[in-house]
Amino acid sequence: MSGARVPLGHLYIVADGMGGHKGGALAAQMAVEELQRYIGQAAAGESADAVIEGAFKAANDAVYKRSNSGDTAVAGMGTTAVLALILGRVAKLAHVGDSRAYLFRNHRLAQLTTDHTIVQRMIEAGMLRPDEAADHPQSSVLERAIGSAPTVGVDIRDHHLEEGDALLLCSDGLSGYVGADKIEAVLRADGPVQDTTINLVRLALEAGGRDNVTVQLIRYGARGMPAAAMRTRPLPSLPPRAPAAGAGPARREPGSLWKLAVFAVAGILAGTVTAGSLIYSIGNRTTPAVSELTQKLNESNSARDQAQQRVKELVQQVEDLQRRPVLPPPSPASVPTPTPPAPSKVKEARKTTPPGNTTSKKQSGDSTPTKSATDSPGKRPEDLSGSDKGSPGTDKGVTSVSVDAPPSTPPQATPPKDTVEEGRPTG
Question: Minimal CA–CA distance to 290: which of 80, 70, 131, 59?
Answer without folding.
Answer: 80
